[in-house]
């Protein structure tokens, strides 16, 4: 009996040592995003001045956390409204705000991608303008949609829609606080559009919007050679495996 107790004691110490410095499993906020899947190594920090600490599966992250994935890493967050956000390898994503149950004003889930790419499968219960992804030069607002956002090395942003619709605006125009009741413009078919012509583009299923570093927007159909890449296939398989049907 003493040997068993001794073994249990040392095992507990080892586990405690490994968990020192890791992001805690509980967060103080009422609503949080749960790390529902983790492959490889990822880190997170709360606020701009804190140090990054390791993330473990099951961690609960509140708003103002920034996630950073390493090479060959994949991370999945399940949000309070059951939406899912997945982070690709070598990506940096900030949780700016999370949709809070029962709160009506200034209430939405918003994220900022500064490097790499994300995949989002947005719940049908999310209302208009309640889910938003921002990059250095673009903002994508969605509802009941499956899409990905990719920040390229040249600072361009590519938003690809696989189901539903996404309204994409370049951030320079978005910063002017456009009237949310203003009519959005739809563009059908591949064509180049300057930021002087349009303030927003609405991309539908199997369309993509590319926003260059200087804000020029262009919408095209998703190319067949990119529609079935490794990242897309993995996310689609993950959606099927977890039973997600947000469309």
Q: Would you give an account of this structure?
A:
- The chain is α+β, with helices and mostly antiparallel strands and 247 residues long.
- The chain has a single domain (24-242), classed as Jelly Rolls, CATH 2.60.120.1440.
- Helix content is 16%, strand content 38%.
- The protein has an 18-stranded mixed sheet that branches.
- Strand 6 (74-78) and strand 7 form a beta hairpin.
- The relative contact order is 0.11.
Short account of what is shown:
The protein has 247 residues and is an alpha+beta fold. The chain has helices spanning 2-19, 171-174, 224-227, 230-242, and strands spanning 33-39, 42-46, 53-54, 60-61, 65-69, 74-78, 84-87, 92-97, 109-121, 131-134, 138-142, 146-151, 157-163, 165-170, 191-193, 201-204, 207-211, 217-221. The chain has an 18-stranded mixed sheet that branches.
């Amino acid at each position: 009996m003493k040997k068993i107790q001794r073994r249990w004691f040392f095992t507990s110490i080892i586990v405690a040592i490994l968990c020192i410095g890791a992001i805690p499993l509980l967060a103080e906020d009422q609503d949080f995003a749960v790390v529902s899947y983790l492959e490889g190594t990822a880190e997170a920090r709360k606020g701009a001045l804190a140090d990054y600490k390791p993330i473990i599966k099951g961690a609960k992250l509140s708003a103002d956390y920034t996630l950073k994935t390493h090479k060959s890493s994949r991370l999945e967050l399940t949000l309070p409204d059951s939406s899912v956000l997945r982070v690709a390898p070598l990506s940096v994503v900030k949780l700016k705000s999370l949709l809070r149950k029962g709160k009506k004003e200034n209430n939405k889930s918003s994220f900022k991608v500064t490097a790499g790419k994300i995949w989002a499968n947005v719940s049908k219960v999310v209302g208009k303008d309640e889910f938003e992804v921002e990059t250095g030069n673009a903002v994508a607002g969605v509802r009941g949609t499956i899409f990905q956002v990719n920040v390229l090395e040249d600072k361009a942003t590519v938003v690809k829609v696989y189901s539903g619709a996404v309204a994409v605006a370049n951030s320079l125009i978005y910063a002017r606080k456009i009237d949310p009741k203003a009519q959005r413009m739809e563009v059908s078919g591949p064509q180049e559009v300057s930021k002087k012509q349009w303030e927003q583009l609405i991309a539908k299923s199997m369309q993509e919007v590319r926003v260059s570093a200087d804000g020029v927007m262009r919408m095209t159909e998703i190319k067949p050679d990119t529609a079935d890449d490794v990242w897309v296939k993995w996310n689609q398989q993950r959606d099927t495996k977890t039973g997600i049907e947000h469309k």
